[in-house]
Amino acid sequence: MTLLRGLPPTHPGELLREVVLPAIGKPKTEIARALGVSRHTLYELLGERQPVTPQMALRVGKLCGNGAEFWLRMQANYDLAVTAPAMAEELERIPTLEAA
Description:
Order of helices and strands: HHHHH
CATH architecture: Orthogonal Bundle
Protein name: Putative Xre family DNA-binding protein
InterPro entries: Lambda_DNA-bd_dom_sf, Toxin_antidote_HigA
Strand content: under 5%
Organism: Sphingomonas changbaiensis NBRC 104936
Keywords: DNA-binding
Helix content: 55-70%
GO molecular function, one term: DNA binding
């Protein structure tokens, strides 16, 4: 998990909502249509209630021209940042194996 300037990773929906969509300047309904998803699906992503799936990453990556990998990495970084603290005690009990 990499922190940029001490800040935790951002949910991809926040980047879409705060930076990408305003720069595109089109209504969310039109963006949903262009992505081939329902408005509800887009709003769930923008509201950070749903993750970027591989299918959505392919769609958003095509729309933005920056590829699916960017969006999947962003989601993975966010997921690790959220999950690691919740699992800290459990992970402490798991030994790290070493080669013989």
